[in-house]
Amino acid sequence: QVQLVESGGGAVQAGGSLRLSCAASLIFSNYCIGWFRQAPGKEREGVATININSKTRYAESVKARFTISQDNAKRTLFLQMDSLKPEDTAMYYCAAVEAFGTAPYCGLDSGAYDNWGQGTQVTVSS
């Protein structure tokens, strides 16, 4: 069914930037897609989501620093991460779930998503 493949992770110094990509396949027009992360010893949290109309939502901890976007034609999701902090260190996952309606609500609750990529590691050193 849906395949999600993340890329772009790596190791950077605090204050640096990274751009993550998620290549998606077999995703229909009505869907929610987003980025989630999990650090060792911490629970998984939603980072940013976007719907088919490009309506976005962000966790308070990343607002003004991260930007989520999508290329609908190429079925690719992006996460531009600027001003990275050590606390951003985590495994980052791309996730998607079918959504219905003309303006679907795409929340930050990871439990609502049922298609997941394998993740890409982001490490930010102080």
Task: Report what the structure shows.
The chain has 126 residues and is an all-beta fold. It has no helices and eleven strands. The model has no long low-confidence stretch (mean pLDDT 94).
Radius of gyration: 14 Å
Spans where pLDDT lies below 50 across 5 or more residues: none
Inertia-based shape: globular
- Strand % is over 45%
SS elements, strand count: 11
End-to-end CA span: 40 Å
Biggest sheet character:
7 strands, mixed
Provide the helix percentage.
under 10%
Number of helices: 0
Q: What's the SSE pattern?
A: EEEEEEEEEEE
Question: Which structural class best describes the helix and strand composition?
Answer: mainly beta
Mean pLDDT: 94
Question: Can you describe this structure in just a few lines?
Answer:
This protein is mainly beta. The chain is built from no helices and eleven strands.
Helix-strand blueprint:
Blueprint (H helix, E strand, L loop, with lengths): L2 E5 L2 E4 L4 E8 L5 E8 L6 E7 L4 E3 L7 E6 L4 E6 L8 E9 L16 E2 L3 E6 L1
Parallel strand pairs: 2-11
Antiparallel strand pairs: 1-3, 3-8, 4-5, 4-9, 5-6, 7-8, 9-10, 9-11
What keywords describe this structure?
126 residues, single chain, mainly beta, seven-stranded mixed sheet, four-stranded antiparallel sheet, 0% helix
